[in-house]
Specification:
- By secondary structure, this protein is α+β, with helices and mostly antiparallel strands.
- Helix content is 43%, strand content 22%.
- The protein is built from six helices and seven strands, in the order ααααααβββββββ.
- A hairpin with a 5-residue loop joins strand 4 and strand 5.
- Helix 1 runs antiparallel to helix 2.
- The two termini are 102 Å apart.
- The N terminus is likely disordered.
């Protein structure tokens, strides 16, 4: 059977049904005629046998005709595509708007205008650098270094400051011990911590931070007597500390590289 012989499937089934009814009628007419001859010539029992046999053949033929005319063959015509006006309108894809990334530099005056270009250079050299995190770390380092220096804890100073600064601190601690003096100081508050300078040379970055803090400073002698300062009066201090670090190194810590008064 050649492809597409049945055309559109649904109308052809109706035509096939009419052909099937005519063929079935002709089959039963033939069976009836032969049954009449058999009944007349051979008697009722033999004729009954042939009637049943012919009925079974007719049923078989009817089933075969229905299986051909009443089922899809895979060659039916597909429904025509809808006209353009009947198709649902295609929704246009929304256009994305490129929003520039927000700068990681906080808008709270943490960077002096004169240091902005230097901070940008640090960010370009190390994409993980974050100004806010650096300021928080610098405040913590400021407090820890002061406490270690006041108490004479040189072991803590080793991993917080660079060698040149540590040597200066060690000399001051030794001089204080020789005089029999101790420091009874307390950091009351850090009023301001602002980046005032920044630079990158190769992989080495340096950032200077100005600290404005209130410190209660007292110096005692070997007997515990106050020889300088007062615990009731806080002293305003203004320091500029420079921190240094080798960028993209395994050590993420910034170390104190230089100290100066503002």
């Amino acid at each position: 059977m050649r492809a597409g012989a049945f055309g559109n499937w649904s109308p052809r089934v109706a035509g096939g049904s009419r052909q099937f009814n005519g063929a079935l009628l002709r089959i039963f007419e033939t069976i009836a005629a032969k049954a009449y001859v058999r009944v007349k010539g051979f008697g009722g029992m033999v004729s009954t046998f042939y009637i049943v046999l012919f009925a079974m053949v007719a049923a078989f033929l009817a089933l075969r005709l229905y299986s051909v005319l009443g089922k899809r063959t895979g060659h039916e015509q597909q429904p025509l595509p809808k006209a353009a006006e009947e198709r649902p309108p295609v929704q246009p894809m929304p256009r994305t708007i490129d929003v520039p990334a927000e700068p990681r530099e906080p808008q709270n005056g943490a960077v002096d205008p004169a240091a902005r270009s230097g901070v940008a250079a640090v960010i370009n050299a190390d994409s993980n650098f974050d100004v806010a995190q650096f300021i928080d770390g610098a405040k913590s380092a400021y407090e820890m270094i002061l406490k270690a220096f006041w108490s004479g804890d040189e072991e803590t100073l080793k991993w917080l400051v660079e060698d040149d600064v540590r040597e200066g601190f060690s000399a001051a601690i030794a001089e204080r011990k020789e005089a029999g003096h101790t420091l009874d100081n307390r950091l009351i508050s850090i009023e301001t911590a602002k980046i005032v300078d920044a630079s990158v040379e190769g992989r080495n970055a340096r950032i200077a931070v100005r600290f404005d803090a209130d410190i209660a400073a007292v110096t005692r002698d070997a007997d515990g007597n106050v020889v300088a300062g007062s615990m009731s009066d806080a002293v305003e201090t203004h320091d500029i500390w420079t921190f240094a670090r080798t960028l993209r190194s395994d050590d993420p810590n910034w170390k104190l590289a230089e100290t100066d008064e503002a």
